[in-house]
Amino acid sequence: MIRAWLSQHSYVLVQVLKRMVASPVTSLLSALVMGIAFSLPVGFYLFLQNMHAISGQNSVTPQMSLFLKQSTTGQDIAAVRERLQGKEQVAHIQFISKDQALLQLQQSGGAGNVVPSLGRNPLPDAFVVDVQNAHAEALERLQIIMQKWPEIEYVQFDSVWAERLEAILSFGRVITILLFTLLSVAVVAVMFNTIRLQILTRRDEIELSKLIGATDGFIQRPFLYFGAIQGLIGGITAWLIIALALQMINDELKTLAGLYAWDIHLQHLSNSDSISLLLFAAWIGWLGARLAVASHLWQTEPGS
Amino acid sequence: MIQFKQVSKRFPDGYLALNNVDLDVGAGEMAFLTGHSGAGKSTLLKLIAAIEHPTSGVIAINGHNIVQLKPAALPFLRRKIGFVFQDYKLLFDRNVYDNVLLPLQISGFDSKVVASRVRAALDKVGLLKKEKAMPVTLSGGERQRLCIARAVVHRPLVLIADEPTGNLDMGYAREIMAIFHAFHQVGVTVLVATHDAALLKDAQYRILFLQQGKLAT
After folding, report:
1. How close is the nearest chain B Cα to the Cα of A211, in Å?
2. What is the ipTM of this complex?
3. First to last CA, chain A
4. Residue A25 burial by Cβ neighbours in a 10 Å radius (0-12, 13-18, 19+)
């Protein structure tokens, strides 16, 4: 029973693949159309993902930097730490000593070259504080309070640019979703038309099959397989287009990043995102085929 | 095996193709259905396979009323019937073997037995040597026999044929009738619609005569 079922399905699969190979130009063009349609929103999505990654892992969490006066002692530092721990808005405290800061500056390139020419370390000790998501006003009040502490030279509140970036990114996400929706509908329409033509050219076979006892499932199967496989190939094409584009962009970025001593290169989709893309593409192809089959098969009903 | 009780069929344009037909073809019987063209022969055969649906009356195949069948159940009725179509309905995009294979694929036969089934059916109609040929290359008689092989490959209970010798000369026609006779011999119920007087003259089977939609025996 199960073996018969399996052999039926694998037979259909082979037939569908044969049919695709039999008209390679058409199949390749369809794959290309779908690939390009998918690669646009996916590329956009990737761009946003990379922006997000570059801008820091947790850019949405507001951060405050407390720079201490040059004259502070170990006791002062301990006192500030204790006071910070007492504040309920403070989620995480990281102390960066002036020596650490200098080391980081040297390693980060850019201004690092000038360090040896400085007679002494001009950098202050600092606390980097993650604040819990609180109301902007409350955070401002906290900033004012801390500014008044005697050991503090300056408090910098870093959330504004992060919020702006976050707003831009979420705007970008909306555009991605819109693009994705529109182009998916376009792909469904393309697949609908492809399958409709196939049904028309195979009318005789469909009609005969019905006359000799084929179920609707049997008749639909090759078309649904065709849609899903074509969609899958479209998804793979999109993945390859993006891989190629990233390759080119990263080559350029390497030169640019070298000039500024940055370490940036754009990442392709993660494994799970890649699998999602392929499954989604296959599903979209299947959906187009399903709609075509549903709207055209009744026309071949014998006796009607 | 095939029972009609007061079956009438009126087409949407008002034409009455069958008028109160009562019919009973027993299991394993072979019978001819004849009458002038337009007498309703094709319509009657289509009713048996539920390709057309009666306006009134009851049709039973193998004891099951098929008039009330749900669309989802129709395929399973049709698999019990082998239909030799007047216009053959061969598929020209595949070879002889694959044409005969189709009913087995539809019924979901295990791929291990299909090859021997297909070859057995082709052998019975004398087309075994042509299994790789494309239907376009076949003569009229060969196409007819291919259609018969396809109709019997899944071993139906009932074999119905619509004018199976219509386009053939006498030699071919006798050959075809011999094939039907052979199926009758192994217990298949056979109903053949024909207006070929020469075939009917020396037939030893019951002849059902349709005249203007009515059955006159």
Report:
1. 7
2. 0.90
3. 34
4. exposed
Q: Could you tell me if A10 and A82 lie in one domain?
A: no
Which residue has tokens 């040929």? Answer: B133
Query: What confidence tens digit (pLDDT) does each residue in A116-145 have?
Result: 777 778 888 888 888 776 666 777 788 888
All structural domains of chain B with their residue ranges: 1-80+156-217, 91-155
pLDDT score for A117:
73
pLDDT in tens, B108-130: 887 778 999 999 999 989 999 99
| Residue among B51, B93, B110 whose CB faces A211 most closely | B51
Question: Does residue A170 sit in the same domain as residue A225?
Answer: yes
| Positions of chain B with pLDDT lower than 50, given as ranges | none
Q: Are residues A234 and A265 in the same domain?
A: yes
Strand order in the sheet with B2-10: B16-25, B2-10, B56-61, B64-65
Name chain A contacts of B150, Cβ cutoff 8 Å: 212
Helix (H, G, I), strand (E, B) or coil at B17: strand
**Cα B144–B149–B153 angle (5° rounding)?**
155
- Prediction pTM value: 0.74
Asked whether A219 and B74 are in contact (CB, 8 A), the reply is: no
